[in-house]
Write a structure and sequence with these properties.
This protein has helices at 2-12, 29-40, 52-62, 75-88; strands spanning 20-24, 44-49, 66-69, 94-96. It is α/β, with parallel strands linked by helices. Strands 3-2-1-4 form a 4-stranded parallel beta sheet, with helices on both faces. Helix 1 runs parallel beside helix 2 (29-40).
């Protein structure tokens, strides 16, 4: 049910033009499904995954986006992700904390 609800929320974002969206955990499950929907709608997507390989795989599977590393169990990784995301998208529209 969570997947269905999350994907409906993603579909609801279609009424907004070209949002900058960061989602954690896009390499599987709900995050992977939502990322495909959001990219099809023309949004810019930042894939925040635990490893660089996971992020690269998420981008390949979704068909686009920006791979980023964010291991939520490692505060140094979270700080690095925040720094890189701020530089890449100073005006982020949506942050979806999906992983965990």
């Amino acid at each position: 049910q969570w997947c269905h609800t999350f994907c409906l929320i993603a579909l609801g974002l279609s009424r907004f033009a070209a949002l900058k969206i960061a989602i954690t955990g896009t390499n599987s499950g709900v995050g992977a499904s939502a990322s495909k929907i959001l990219l099809e709608q023309g949004h810019t997507l930042f894939h925040a995954c635990r490893t660089a390989d996971g992020a690269a795989a998420a981008v390949a599977e979704a068909g686009g986006g920006v791979p980023m590393v964010c291991d939520l169990a490692d505060l140094a990784s979270v700080r690095q992700f925040c720094s890189e995301l701020s530089a890449a998208a100073p005006a982020l529209d949506v942050l979806c904390l999906n992983s965990g």
